[in-house]
């Protein structure tokens, strides 16, 4: 089974780790809007793709048997010097991006080094910025403010209403899609969106025109995996069904076959079932949260739930 998972950060890491137990043919398509931390520093200083989420996806698909390179890639420098806060893997990817240039070739080389099963691709070959319309930031709670940048959107105390993607160099053209990512979506048997930061890791994939068209056109079964808890800042106070409502607002042409949610994290199952039906999807309520952390997926449980969701979607 050819599986493609789209997202970024810890949410995509959870999906990829679960998918490794379902199929060896996994492609990760990773957002490239990060402008904070080590990734943001490298992006600003060198003009490169932010490497952090790409590194996390590589390590998720490499699994536990990476030898010393896995530990080294994840190691983060301490102290207060120029290297403080940088992950070694981020620096390796930055060096490869500067010397090799082509991000697809860079990620293939890094995957070979780590013994990755599957493939990691960027959402776009160029870094992008997220711009959001937000309410609740001024004296008039209904007034819309415009903010820009992944960190600004993820940490806003206001309520995010809508996002857009902009080229990092502020050109008027829409962001380009990675051609190999488009091909992977069109050739997949199953495509997964989420979990992850909804406005900064999940929805951006739907706002790259060629990637959006591929997600609409693909014959693959499309599965949405919902977050276990609202994200502090960008989705504070969102119900599970509101996550799907926002998805519809940003991609009204997208149809979905299955929605996976944690059974203990859904206070109004019938409302969520109706929101899933608006996307054409069947709702799967499974216990997929880690028993010791309500905000973290249990890898084995999520893997089993995804396998059932895909099998059910295939029969529809």
UniProtKB/TrEMBL annotation:
User: Is-annotated flag, keyword Disulfide bond?
Assistant: no
What Pfam families does this protein's entry cite?
CofD
List the NCBIfam families: CofD_related
Q: What does this protein do?
A: Required for morphogenesis under gluconeogenic growth conditions.
Gene Ontology terms for molecular function? LPPG:FO 2-phospho-L-lactate transferase activity
Q: What InterPro entries does UniProt report for this protein, alphabetically?
A: CofD, CofD-like_dom_sf, Gluconeogen_factor
Record's subcellular location = Cytoplasm
Where does this chain mainly localize? cytoplasm
Q: Lineage of this protein's species?
A: Bacteria, Bacillati, Actinomycetota, Actinomycetes, Pseudonocardiales
| Protein known as | Putative gluconeogenesis factor
Is this entry keyworded Cytoplasm? yes
Q: Which domain of life is it from?
A: Bacteria
Q: Which CDD domains match?
A: YvcK_like (cd07187)
Which family, according to UniProt? Belongs to the gluconeogenesis factor family.
